[in-house]
Amino acid sequence: MALDVNWAVKWLTLSAQAMAEHRTELIELDRAIGDSDHGENMDRGFQAVVDKLAETPPETPGAALKLTAMTLMSKVGGAAGPLYGTAFLRAAASLGDAAEIDPAALAAALAAARDGIVARGQAEPGDKTMVDAWTPAVEAARAAADAGGTDTLSVLVAAAEAAEAGAVATDPLVARKGRASYLGERSAGHRDPGAASSALILRAAVGAAA
Amino acid sequence: MTVSIVVVSHSEKIADGAAELAAQMAPDVVIRAAGGTTDGRIGTSLEKVLAALEQASGSDGTVVLTDLGSAVMTAESALEFAGDAAGVLLADAPLVEGVVAASVAAQGGADVQAVKRAAESVRGPAQQPGPPPQEVPEGPATGEGPAFTGDFELINEAGMHARPAAKIAGGLSSLDAEVLVNGVDGTSMTALMMLAAGKGAVLHVEARGVDAERAVNYVGGLVQAGFGEP
Questions:
Q1: Which of A119, A131, A158, B60 could form a Cys-Cys staple with A140, CB 3.0–4.6 A?
Q2: Which of these three, B71, B103, B121, is where a domain ends?
């Protein structure tokens, strides 16, 4: 199916559901190596997104993502606010006013989102951050899009699977960015909460298209 | 108009308190606080930062100071979101000292780049200890090649405390001169305070640049007038 504004709104709504369902799990992950507010912050932020989308229904996928960016940056509070906010803002800019998203535009928007996170947080792959979920997701999405065809669902599935694998792969890493980096070696053995929430959000994108 | 200041902190109390502290030394400067989240929790909010930037916007520019990591990211995001960030600069400085130094520089009429520098000079390069106070009679500025120097004895009871340091740093930051006072940057209020110069101590002023002579005379005038204090 074509990815239009209805898909975008459904994606964000499913993301909010995922944040609510995994709230405790994200809090536990963050308690181990951070300040234990990630689950609560993401849940609150995405509930606010759902409210905003109902208040002012967007007309394009880009508009939905821009509204999400503004809301997350205002409501999340922790570092995840500006990081996810920038990701959605850059993705929105990449999509422009387009009413529908094809595989190439989807891969480009994911790359723009990842580049926004990198620019804002200055993290590199391997630093045990959400970049470790996003970078393989972007690469997998691009490969799926380059494989041709008009199948956006396969691009989303490729991104979600790669993000999930990337999040799991943060377990043994020693954090070099963010609050967890204060723990040094002790941060190894725990999954990065931001990588985990990123994987949940990209999985929700599949659910919205299925 | 002067350059305005926006203070971004995770804590509403810290942002408000730093703004209040700085306002005491910079009564004519617009200082807006954006602390905490919109619902009063610890954190930073794009909405609050954008509102503060809006209130602070003026023709002379705005310098934004932040505390911990995500406050920096929120401030950067606000600039990206606003799109037109001309004249708005982020300063990389310790929050409280930076806000005070920036506000004092703005009060003294410094432009937006100079206000940013004033904030960032708080951290400064590792400060070298100044030369020991010298037993030199106070006197007018004397030219030595490109540099002007002067030695001035502090006559006010309290010596070099916050307000005199603010006056010196604020005035010097609007002059086109590099000024060292006992070896530290004369535009850095905190560096001046850290000299811990009491009554009777001598300030050795060295200035280079177009306004070097004015800079030395400015400091000398203030010191010899006891900063208007007893």
A1: A158
A2: B121
B9 and B94 part of one domain: yes
Out of B10, B116, B167, B214, pick the active-site residue.
Answer: B10
For residue B149, what are its two tokens?
């120097």
Give me the domain span that covers residue B79.
Answer: 4-121
Does B137 map to a domain?
A: no
**CB proximity under 8 Å: A 141-170 to B:** none
pLDDT in tens, B165-177: 888 988 888 888 9
All residues of chain B having their beta carbon less than 8 Å from the beta carbon of residue A74 are 38, 45-48
Q: Can you tell me the ipTM of this complex?
A: 0.74
For B105-155, what is each residue's pLDDT tens digit?
A: 898 888 999 999 989 988 755 444 445 444 444 545 544 445 899 999 999
Helix (H) and strand (E) counts in chain A: 9, 0
The total number of structural domains in chain B stands at: 2
Q: What percent of chain A has pLDDT over 90?
A: 87
pTM over 0.80: no
Among B121, B137, B160, which residue terminates a domain? B121
Partner A contacted by B74 (CB < 8 A): yes
Q: Produce one character per residue of A89-127: b if its CB has 16 or more CB atoms within 10 Å, e if not.
A: bbbbbbbeeeeebbbebbbbbbbbbbbbbbebbebeeeb
Taking the Cβ of residue A112 and every Cβ of chain B, the question of whether any pair is shorter than 8 Å is answered with no
For residue B190, being part of any structural domain is answered with yes
**What are the beta bridge partners of residue B115?**
none
A83 touches chain B (CB under 8 A): yes
Per the annotation, the verdict on B10 as an active-site residue is yes
In angstroms, the CA B183 to CA B203 distance is 10
